Amino acid sequence: MSLVFFLFAIFILMGVSSLSASAGTGIVIRPIHLTLDADGSRGGKVNVINQKDKEVTLQASIFGWQQKKKGHDVLVKSNDIILTPPIMRIGPNEQQTIRYALKSGISADPEREKAYRLVIDELPRSPSSGGGLSLRMRYVLPLFVGGREAEAGPLELFYEKQSDKCVLNVKNSGSRHAKLLSVEAKSNKNTFKFRAPLYILGVTTLALSCPTEMKEASSVEVLNVESDVGNFSIVINGRDARRP
């Protein structure tokens, strides 16, 4: 009996609604930033294009999305949003549209945004007799519901440097998501880049670990932050710093 082992390659797709993404996999998805309006009465759609030379089978699922303090996503299977179709076969150079809408009885809050992830998994083909390793793709897209009247931010940052840790805490006190586009720290000799881009959901605080080489630096003088709710710099002068 032959065995086939499946390895997931996960692509977290981030961007604005006018962009598309393929991640070099032969599958093009557009748009990659999904929303439902405040009352959820109007649905949305995602176009999936197969640029491979063979048929693919995909499965779409919805997960509720929360964040732990260290930036890890927590995804829980959700039935709040209906997907049509949930499973699809797409031939070479063909396209399939996935439509999504709030389930009957589920409402969207205009004053508070709710976050989900649309997850599209590539299902395995029939295993060959020789066995081996098969690479499966997973595409993860953000989907935000409601929050038309909500605002993101202001963002609050607190940088902490001790002998055994180096952390940048970022708090989004608004009820709508914000997006960190770039975060970098500068010393007198080097520039250190944090993990970005990165979503910060509403009413959430993330603790971002400093890059490894930054932990070994004797001091950090300036933190530069770019986000979709504003850009700013923090002068540290070797001490813990807070903004605003």
Taken from the alpha-carbon principal axes, the silhouette is globular
- Assigned CATH architecture of the largest domain: Sandwich
Strand and helix order: EEEEEEEEEEEEEEEEEHEEE
- In round numbers, the mean pLDDT is 81
CATH class of the largest domain: Mainly Beta
Terminal Cα span: 63 Å
Tell me the total number of β-strands. Answer: 20
Uncertain residue ranges: 1-8, 15-19
Q: What's the number of domains? A: 2
Strand residue content: over 45%
CATH fold-level label of the largest domain: Immunoglobulin-like
Helical content band: under 10%
Structural class: mainly beta
Q: Describe the biggest sheet?
A: 7 strands, mixed
In DSSP terms (H or I, runs of 4 or more residues), the helix count works out at 1
Task: Please compute the radius of gyration using only Cα atoms.
Answer: 21 Å
Give the name of the CATH superfamily of the largest domain: Immunoglobulins
Describe this protein's structure.
The structure is a single chain. The protein has 244 residues and is mostly beta strands. It folds into 2 domains: 4-145, Immunoglobulin-like (Sandwich); 155-243, Immunoglobulins (Immunoglobulin-like, Sandwich). Helix content is 2%, strand content 53%. It contains 1 helix and 20 strands. The protein has one helix at 212-215, and strands at 4-12, 27-30, 34-36, 44-50, 56-67, 73-77, 81-84, 87-90, 95-102, 114-122, 132-145, 155-161, 166-172, 178-186, 191-193, 198-200, 204-209, 222-227, 230-235, 241-243. It starts with a strand and ends with a strand.
